[in-house]
């Protein structure tokens, strides 16, 4: 498995449980117990998911006495956004051509129906 930051981020985002954890952390800091509540998996399994997210730089864990809050880190998500943006223009161009072709087909079909 590649260990570059973008690959680690995509690998971490590939799991729906980890995406749900990130969605919860987007609302604010939370403890492991709080993050584990909605899932029907062990606390140990949640901790393993958190380690993957932490290794990818998507979360950090603080220390406040005995409370170890997890918090979302946005930098890796910003890198994903930059990577996706490189291709956005290409996709938009393809969709624009598809829209134009569909309009042409619709216009052609409507023209044929009006002559019947």
UniProtKB/TrEMBL annotation:
Protein name, as recorded: Winged helix-turn-helix transcriptional regulator
Annotated HTH arsR-type domain residues: 1-92
Source organism per UniProt: Nocardiopsis eucommiae
A GO term for molecular function: DNA-binding transcription factor activity
InterPro entries: ArsR-like_HTH, HTH_ArsR_DNA-bd_dom, WH-like_DNA-bd_sf, WH_DNA-bd_sf
Domain of life the protein comes from: Bacteria
Pfam families membership: HTH_20
PROSITE patterns: HTH_ARSR_2
């Amino acid at each position: 498995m590649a260990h570059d930051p973008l690959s680690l981020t995509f690998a971490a985002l590939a799991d729906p449980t980890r995406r749900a954890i990130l969605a919860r952390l987007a609302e604010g800091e939370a403890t492991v117990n709080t993050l584990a509540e909605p899932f029907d998996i062990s606390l140990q399994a949640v901790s393993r998911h958190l380690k993957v997210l932490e290794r990818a730089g998507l979360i950090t864990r603080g220390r406040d006495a005995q409370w170890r809050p997890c918090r979302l880190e946005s930098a890796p998500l910003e890198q994903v956004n930059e990577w996706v943006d490189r291709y956005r223009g290409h996709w938009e161009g393809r969709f624009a051509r598809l829209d134009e072709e569909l309009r042409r087909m619709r216009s052609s079909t409507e023209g044929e129906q009006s002559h019947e």
